[in-house]
Amino acid sequence: MEQFAKLGFSSEVLSVLKEAGFKEPTEIQEKTIPLAIAGKDIIGGSATGSGKTLAFASSIIENLKINDHIQALILTPTRELAEQVAKSISLFSRNKNLNVFAVYGGVDIGRQIRALSRTDILVGTPGRILDHINRRTLRLDHVKFLVLDEVDRMLDMGFHRDVEAIIKHCPTKRQTMLFSATISADLDYLAQRYTKNPENVMVESFVDNSKLEQIYYDVPSNSKFSLLVHLLKKKDSELIMIFCSTRHNADFISENLNNAGIKARAIHGGLVQNKRLNLLREFHEKRFNVLVCTDVAARGLDIKGVSHVYNYDIPKTTNDYIHRIGRTARAGQNGKIVNILASRDYENFQNIARDESIKISQEDLPQFETIRIRVDFSRKRNFNRGRESVRFGNNNNHSKGNRMNKSQRMNNQRYF
Q: Are residues 374 and 405 in the same domain?
């Protein structure tokens, strides 16, 4: 605890950190906390899992004086990250008697309205925060601390106008901290307009590149799933994350992995909040070890023990690729990124590979068994594969209410 004490934490916070098992500060914490506690505006470059929550929460916890108003606002891009940040700050501030609350869409707004009157530190997504402002159930005129967490992702998700609208409801006299895994022109614009003489704190990615192996396989489009199953069954792994481009793809891959004997679950924005939280808890508890997800759903999740990340659909941007690979090779652990390429992925992959900081080597294609995939045509499911949208078969094979014969059932299987 001596190193944390040197950063400026009070005894109340130090005791909590000790109980929680903190031993020494991470790079972002060591560089940011003294500046934050001193009240400086900060632009922090740091990935999820680097310990940035404690870094920006330090100033709020140590400097906030309890009154009857919300004094700290933290914006996050997703519901899951809002929950995670609120939970962490509640822990860190336990001995300070601060009330921390998270607001986001998809849950009862009435409960949120009732809780806002008792809140000191508010964490939330831009859409729901702005909703409360417009309903006049939230006032921000006493905010002394403003944090934009994972601001790059908020901008990617189209929250630029919402974020600016929210900031304009905050007092100009405040401490502002922006944290991002990547730097962009939009981020520079926000920093120039809404911070005052900010301190720039840039650290190396929390992903240890010396422990991160990045490879790719080049396969025919109709063999991607078969290769994925082969690789997943080839060796035992810890926790695995598979990224898909759409909700439909995530559901499709998850369902057929289970049909192939691999325990997998899909998480995406189409699930209700309680379902998503339950899935994440079960994944943490290793009740299943393969999580199939979209970028938005996985954004900001700090899941320990992820050994492999599979890109079943190659992301469109280098930023998204960096965020995906940041799920593994953390805190001294080894990690592996497996990119499964078909012809439709070439353009996106070539754009990513141009980044000199990303080193990806090609692997020889192994021999693997071709997997038949069952498709339930009665559900009229489309399997959206990036630029292509493929409908396997149609409903003309059998009339409603009639059972399919063996031949028809075989026609409902495709190699993939």
A: yes
Q: Are residues 290 and 305 in the same domain?
A: yes
d(CA 395, CA 379): 9
- 95 shares its domain with 59: yes
Nearest alpha-carbon partner for 321 in 285, 293, 281, 348: 348
**Cα 398 from Cα 395, distance rounded (Å):** 7
CA distance 94 to 61: 10
User: pLDDT tens digit string along 355-385?
Assistant: 777 889 999 999 999 988 766 544 444 444 4
Q: How many domains, the chain? A: 2
Tokens of 391: 């409908």
How far, in Å, CA of 340 to CA of 223, rounded? 10
Confidence at 23, pLDDT banded by 50, 70, 90: confident
Instruction: Annotate 289-304 with b (16+ C-beta within 10 A) or e (fewer).
Output: bbbbbbbbbbbbbbbe
Q: For residue range 300-320, list pLDDT tens digits in order.
A: 566 778 999 999 999 998 878
pTM for this prediction? 0.64
Task: In whole angstroms, give the CA distance from residue 402 to residue 284.
Answer: 43
- Whose tokens are 């934009």? That residue is 148
> Looking at residue 386, what is its pLDDT?
41
CA atoms of 119 and 68, how far apart (whole Å): 8
Q: What CA–CA distances, in Å, run from 252 to 103, 166, 416?
A: 31, 38, 12
Shared domain check, 195 and 234? no
How far from the centroid of its chain's Cα atoms is residue 266's Cα?
14
Contacts 24+ apart (CB under 8 A), 84-87: 84/53, 84/300, 84/301, 84/302, 85/53, 85/123, 85/149, 86/121, 86/123
What is the domain extent for residue 161? Answer: 2-202
User: pLDDT at position 47, please?
Assistant: 67
Strand order from edge to edge, sheet including 212-218? 264-267, 290-293, 239-243, 306-311, 335-341, 212-218, 361-362
Q: Per-residue pLDDT for 159 more than 60?
A: yes
For residues 230 and 366, is the Cβ–Cβ distance under 8 A? yes
